Amino acid sequence: MACSPRRSLPRVDHFPSHAGALPHPRTDPGKPRRPGHPRAPQHCTVGYGYYPDSHQRIPTLRLRGRWLEQLGFTIGSRLHIRMRNGELVVTVADDGEKAPDKAANN
């Protein structure tokens, strides 16, 4: 099961005088957007997957979203995963090495 930002919070209208108004179009659509703040999920559920050629279910975590990229977890990055005090600690490997591109192998 994928983890995503929680959506159960009520929407807060920070600009009540503009309620229902559409946002103004960007003056320069070619200009890059200002980077947003990473919005990591607050909660997620451990799902399940299978090892190849096995019918035994195994716990699975699937994290996805632009927030990963904003935190430095870019596509192809190698990761270090450690267990510490009952927590998983995931960091980007410092060696700067990227994982091989799967598409290049096909």
Automatic annotation (TrEMBL):
Toxin SymE-like domain: which residues?
41-92
The GO cellular component terms are: cytoplasm
The protein's superkingdom reads: Bacteria
Residue ranges for the region (Disordered) are 1-44
Q: What are the boundaries of the signal sequence? A: none
**GO biological process entries:** RNA metabolic process
Q: Name one GO molecular function term.
A: RNA binding
InterPro entries from the xrefs?
Toxin_SymE-like (IPR014944)
Protein's recorded name: Toxin SymE-like domain-containing protein
Q: What organism is listed for this UniProt entry?
A: Xanthomonas campestris pv. phaseoli
